[in-house]
Write a structure and sequence with these properties.
4 helices, alpha+beta, 163 residues, 8-stranded mixed sheet
Length: 163
């Protein structure tokens, strides 16, 4: 699995700093932190509810990975709505609907940013993502080892089976 952005180096994963979360069953829950998954490999899927590519490519890829690795306790999946435009359309309620629509039994976060980020997602800002859909892989040592739009889902599944 190669990173399309070869010029980007591995870097320490910043804290999530996302306050609005739902659990795997769609219920509001306490904020989830990167530190909650120490020693595990993390796959973060960034999306916006109104993003066509998120629905045609990203969410189906996420579904495939979650299903293929559902019995692998060493890998944690999270989805975060990283709002950077369309705040009226990319709401907390739309995030909840997206989780249900794709039957993804993983935690979802809603990250509309705040005044410190110019009302742009903190994940988008802190992880320097290029928009949505976007996948971030964080290794067991909290190093970002992959961050890109482009993900070969079959290669990703094979790689994640080895962690």
């Amino acid at each position: 699995m190669s990173n399309q952005n070869e010029d980007k180096t591995i870097f320490n994963a910043p804290a999530f700093d996302v306050n609005l979360w739902i659990d795997a069953d769609g219920n509001k829950t306490n904020p989830i932190e990167l530190s909650d998954f120490q020693g595990k490999f993390k796959v973060i899927y960034c999306f916006q509810s109104w993003c066509p590519g998120c629905h045609s490519q990203g969410l189906p890829a996420l579904q495939k990975m979650v299903e293929a690795l559902k019995n692998k306790d060493e890998v944690e999946f999270l989805a975060i709505q990283t709002v950077f435009e369309g705040h009226d359309a990319n709401t907390f309620e739309k995030m909840v609907e997206t989780q249900a629509k794709y039957n993804l039994k993983i935690p979802f976060g809603h990250d509309p940013g705040d005044e410190t980020t110019g009302n742009r997602s903190k994940i988008l800002t802190n992880y320097q993502t290029g928009g949505t859909p976007w996948f971030i892989f964080i290794d067991k040592h909290d190093k970002v080892v992959f961050a890109d739009f482009h993900l070969n889902v079959e290669n990703a599944i094979e790689f994640l089976k080895t962690v």
